[in-house]
Write a structure and sequence with these properties.
- 18% of the residues are buried.
- With 74 residues, the protein is mainly alpha-helical.
- It has one domain.
- The chain contains 3 helices and 2 strands.
- The longest helix has 20 residues.
């Protein structure tokens, strides 16, 4: 997430970083393709035993931070 967030900020384009919704979709697609969580070894919407919703929220927080920075101070 960090590299995409930095590129988004540096290039002034928040759309370089994907959305939380896309993060959720990627996790579902991985499970559908028989992917497993790296810690539990189970096909569940987690990344290293951290629930997917946490990752989705993190991506959304990064996007909001970038968008706020691009808008500048009020």
């Amino acid at each position: 997430y960090g590299i995409a967030a930095c590129l988004s900020a540096m290039l002034g384009n928040p759309d370089i970083l994907h959305t939380g919704e896309i993060e959720d979709r990627m996790l579902r697609e991985c499970i559908d393709a028989e992917g497993i969580d790296g810690v539990t070894g189970l096909p569940e919407p987690k990344v290293d035993d951290i629930p997917g919703r946490i990752h989705s929220h993190l991506v959304d927080i990064l996007r909001e931070t970038i968008q706020g920075g691009l808008r500048g101070p009020k």
